[in-house]
Amino acid sequence: MPSRGKSSKPKVAKSKEEKTYNQRYWICENYAFYPTPRQIRVGSMTPPPPCDFERWIDTEIREENKRYLEMCKKWETERLERLEKGSKERRQQKRRGKKNWKGGMLLNEGRRGSKRLSVFAVPKQHWRRIYMH
Rounded distance, CA 45 to CA 41, Å? Predict the structure, then answer.
C-alpha cells in the first residue's frame, strides 16, 4: 500500500520541446518538488534531495507529430505574413490620409478637379469671406 499522498505509479511526462515533441519520459519522484501551500506556510518540511534521473520511454517522434509540427510552423509563417501585409496596408492608408489634409481642410480625391475643398470646408470659407462695398 502506498504511503499517504504518494502514488504507486511512476511519474511519466510528455516533452513539449520541438526536438523531442510529445515523447514520453519517466522521471524520478524527487525530480521536481513543489511543496503544497500548507507545507510552505508551516516551513518545517524540507524538500527531498533533487534527483536528475530521467529515462526516455519514446525515442522517436511519430510521423503524425512531425506533420503537426510542420503545420504549426507553416501556420505561424502565414500568420506573420498576414500581420506584415496588414500593417503595411495600414501605413499606406495613413499616408494617404495625411495627403488628403491641407491646412486643416479635407481635400477630395477621386472627383473631377481634385484638390477642391470638401463639402465641409466650403460653408466655413463662406462665413469667413468679408464683403467690401
Answer: 10
